[in-house]
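Chain A, query sequence.
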Amino acid sequence: MPELTGRRVMLREVQAGDADALRAIHRTPAVSAWWGLPDPGFPFDDDPRSIRMTILLDEAIVGLVQFSEEHEPDFRHAWLDIFVDPARHRQGIATDAIETVIRHLVEVRGHHRVNIDPATANRAAIRCYEKVGFRPVGVMHAAWRDPSGDWRDCLLMELVVGGAG
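Chain A, predicted structure.
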């Protein structure tokens, strides 16, 4: 996977030296509220379907973006997810990282549709995704078990490129 350069961020595949910083960000209350606490294999072997990239800003690790792909020709699409260090929220980092990954998914990997599914209660994330161009598709009821064990709703959002559909 090549390094990807955004307006301000640089994305590269997660490396061994990134793990401690990414786990520390993952454990912050603002991230773990949505992601839960990191699994023992995070960020390497807890989700082998995903391609995970470290988000760097001025060479500092500030978050993680991950994506996966459906390659079946009749259902081809990608999905993504992201977290950013809460100390770096509201600085456009997530927006830049998402736009950078989407550009790669469309221009290099040939996707025309990308999904994301934040918790309906995660209003800040939804605003960020709308800013990038994602649009709500519908609510998936009781689709995600939060860290307390309660089932919560998620908002399925998609970004369709080039007027497909």
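The mean pLDDT is 94. The first strand starts at residue 4 and ends at 5.
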